[in-house]
Structures are given as structure tokens and as C-alpha cells.
Amino acid sequence: MPIASVNPATGEVLETFEPLDDAGLDRRLALAEAAFHDYRTTTFVSRAALMHRAADLLDQDQEAVARTMTEEMGKPLAAARAEAAKCAKAMRWYADNAEALLADEHPAAADVADAGAARAYVRYRPLGAVLAVMPWNFPFWQVIRFAAPALMAGNVGLLKHASNVPRTAVAIEELFRRAGFPEGCFQTLLIGSGAVEGVIRDRRVAAVTLTGSEPAGRAVAAAAADEVKKAVLELGGSDPYVVMPSADLAGAVRIAVRARAQNNGQSCIAAKRFIVHTDVYGAFTAAFTEAMQSLKVGDPMDEDTDVGPLASRQGRDDLEELVEDARTHGARVECGGGRPMGWDTGYFYEPTVLTGITPAMRIHQEETFGPVATVYRVAGLDEAVALANDTPFGLSSNVWTRDEAEQERFVRDIQAGGVFFNGMTASHPALPFGGVKRSGFGRELSGHGIREFCNVTTVWIG
Predict the structure, then answer these.
(1) Which of 273, 282, 355, 367 gives the lowest tally of CB atoms within 10 Å of its CB?
(2) Ranges of H-type helices in 262-403
(3) Number of domains making up the chain
(4) Rounded to an integer, what distance in angstroms lies between the CA atom of residue 286 and that of residue 306?
(5) Which of 25, 24, 2, 26 has its CA nearest to residue 15?
(6) Pairing mode, strands 186-188 and 271-277
(7) Residues 87, 185, 268, 454: which is the catalytic one?
(8) Cα(74)–Cα(302) distance, rounded to whole angstroms?
(9) Which one is catalytic: 33, 71, 173, 234?
(10) Buried b vs exposed e over 196-212: b needs ≥16 C-beta within 10 Å?
(11) Does 407 lie in the same domain as 262?
């Protein structure tokens, strides 16, 4: 079956691609194996030159790249431009820092002597071909934050992108090819999800990284574990956004809207559950609802659009089911709650605020992947922490408080891979990114991310 690129704002099929057959897939895996044999011996200086060239090309192509992303998955065009710029920034960061991040480590002289060695050190060596199974919501960024560190470490990359963004997937391979990376260093595999397990199990693939849903993560992790191969997983999130009485309330409201509506609400690290202290609950909820209601839903190609369509019909239908279930069980719809008027085509959904959420509602535990916010009232810090942790996920968290004692308590007790105070969760190449619980394991970005796919080698010299 062809892989189709569909514009979610119109439902129009933009382009179709034939998936790789078995022979084509085998050729690409063989090419990756051959490329790694030589590429692993290249210097950091030569890799950095290639990565800088790729970043320069991406800057030059920013408008075309942004339009491809917007046409394929519906993010507002301004957000797509920002995503392309962020990718170029990360590529340059790894080009400039990889050598230092992977420098040999030397134990203390006394420890070397105690180990019976004349010299001993630790060296980071590349593993081989790394398969990346990536999602559609940040179709360039999710790939680059894997590819830049992997390639700078001396690995080669294989990309199985989400099937609804094939044009973006092809464009990323083309970017690295144009930058001068040797043939086979980065390849897009146009295959269906059913072929992923076979690629993981192939002897020519050394490791796998996945960003996506929990079911997909379970399947990938199971195959990798069975083959005793390294895996990194970044799965779903239901991030809390806690507002305490000492917060800058105007700032908390303003950032709350961005944190929930970014990328049309389709972000694992978007704030989803707004946990508000009773002393400021009324003021926050009223201002937040008004601001969410004022967001402009429309054509993502229009510069003044705030919220575009969801990426797929299924995604919109799933979101509608969650909201309807909450409404049926007594939730109050403060704004939104349905498809916007005037958009009969495309997969649009109104920015929505729900209150009165109870554990009987699916939305209390399930991730909302769209512009829908749930707001809770809590009596104090203990209740806020308990509610923040009352989720199977643990990706990141946001807390608004200027009380340093409260900040320390949240850092100690919130079960998440990140705690962001008085701002919104965002990824940056210098900071590790990942989660706990059912949000996955391992880390991307920073030195932690580039070392995930390295052979940490002990060298002992007698």
C-alpha cells in the first residue's frame, strides 16, 4: 500500500510514495553497514564540518522546509519556521561540542595504580547503525535531536518516520546527502510499521531509539530486549502545570496558553493538567479560559493563525471521545468542546478548557493530544504534588511559585524527567531530555544523549 502525504487542513492527498520492498530494504541496511565501517574512523573535525554544512543548508531552505511540515501535519507556519531554526541550532551545538563531550576520561592516578595499571582511561566509541522510529508532531526536530548526536559520535542513522510525513522524511535524508555526508550515513526507510521489528532484529542494526506512543514503545523495547540491543524510549506525557499562590498570575496564564496550545496541542511535553491552588483558582481559571477562547483557529498557512488542524482524522476523533466521556461524567466545559464553525474540511478542534475532572473520567489518566486543557483545584502543596504524580506518565512538569522552599519540595517529590519553574517545558541541546514511569527511559540531547549510543570502553594498560 502506498505511503500517502495528506494535508490535514483540507484532507487532500499531496503525494504518495511506494514503500521499500524486501530487496530495497536489504540494500539500504547493507549500505548502512558499509558506511559505518569507514565513517566511524573519521575525525570529529571532519564530522563537524559536515554538520555545520547541513545546518547552513537548513537555514537556506527554512521556508521550503517549514511549508513541507505545515502541509503534512498542520502546525502553524510560524511554528514550523521556528522548528527548522531550532534544528540548525542543535546541529551546530553538537558540531561544536561533540569532541569535548566524548573526550577520553582519565581516573585519578591513585585509582589507576590501585587497578594495577600503568595507564587506564575510558573511551567512547560508536556502536553502528542506529534505527530511529520517529513521530509526526515535530517531524524535523524529533529526527535532528537524534541524528545530530548520533552522527557526531560516529554512528550512522536509519530513519523510520511516521507514515503521514513521508515528504519530510525524504527531505531530511536529502539534507544530509547534500551536506556531503558519505553515502549510507543517513537513510530514510519508507516502510510500514509492520516492518520495524524485522529491522530491529537485523544483525546490521546496533540499537534503536523511538519517540511515540506507549504501545509502540512496548513493541520496540520488547524486540530490542529480545535481541539484547540498546534502546532509548521517549513516550507519552500528561505533564502537570502547577500554580501556587506566590506565582506571577498574569505570567502563569500567558505561558499556560502557550504551553497547552503549542503545536496545536500535539506535544508530549505540552502542559495538559493545570493544578491550581484554591487561593488563585478562580482568577486563573477565568483568565485562562478567556485566553484559550480567544485563540484563532484556522488555515495553518495564514500568518495570524494560532491553532491549526490536528494531524489526522483519527487524532481528532480520539480527542472528541475523551472530551465527550468527560462531559458525560460531569465535567464542565468552560470553552470549546467541539469542532469549530466554518471548518467542514480538515481535522480541526476548538481550544477547550474542562473543569470538574474526576477519576471516573478517562481524561484523568489518558493523554490529550490536542488543544484540550483540564483544570483542577487543590487546597495546598501536598495535594498538588499528589495530583501531579497521579498519572502513569512522568515526562516533564511545570510549577509556578516564587517560594524557594516550595521549589525544593517539588524538585524532591515530582516524578518526572524535568521540573520547569515559572516557565514552560522546552527542549534545548545542552539539557538532557527524557522521562520516567511510562514516559520511557534513556535520555536525548546534552552529553547524556550523545553517550546513549556509544560503547563506553575501558582501556587498561599494564
Answers:
(1) 282
(2) 278-293, 313-328, 381-388
(3) 2
(4) 20
(5) 2
(6) unpaired
(7) 268
(8) 11
(9) 234
(10) bbebbebebbbbbbbbb
(11) yes
pLDDT band at 307 (very low <50, low <70, confident <90, very high): very high
The DSSP secondary structure of 80-130, one letter per residue, reads: HHHHHHHHHHHHHHHHHHHHHHT--B---HHHHHHTT-SEEEEEEEE-SEE
185 is catalytic: no
Give residue 258's domain range. 239-428
Q: How confident is the model at residue 425 (pLDDT cuts 50, 70, 90)?
A: very high
Distance CA 142, CA 87 (A): 9
Determine which helix (DSSP H) or strand (DSSP E) holds 136, and give its type and residue range.
Answer: none
Burial group, residue 287, by CB count within 10 angstroms (0-12, 13-18, 19+): middle
For 354-376, the pLDDT digits (tens) are 999 999 999 999 999 999 999 99
Q: What is the CA radius of gyration of the chain?
A: 23
Residue count of the chain: 462
Other C-beta atoms lying within 10 Å of the C-beta of residue 31:
18
Do 57 and 116 have their domain in common? yes
Catalytic residue list contains 87: no
Statement to judge: residues 244 and 200 lie in one domain? no
Residue-wise pLDDT tens digits, 88-103: 999 999 999 999 999 9
Residue 172 predicted with pLDDT over 90: yes
Calculate the alpha carbon distances from 266 to 73, 156, 261, 455 in Å: 10, 29, 8, 35
Fill in the DSSP letter of residue 240. E
Q: Band of the pLDDT at 343, cuts 50, 70, 90?
A: confident
Does residue 287 sit in the same domain as residue 323? Answer: yes
Distance between CA atoms of residues 346 and 80, nearest Å: 19
At 1 the pLDDT is: 84
218 and 248 part of one domain: no
In a domain, 357, yes or no: yes
Nearest in space to 172 (alpha carbons), one of 84, 286, 239: 84
Q: Is residue 12 part of a domain?
A: yes
Pairing of strands 454-461, 119-126: antiparallel
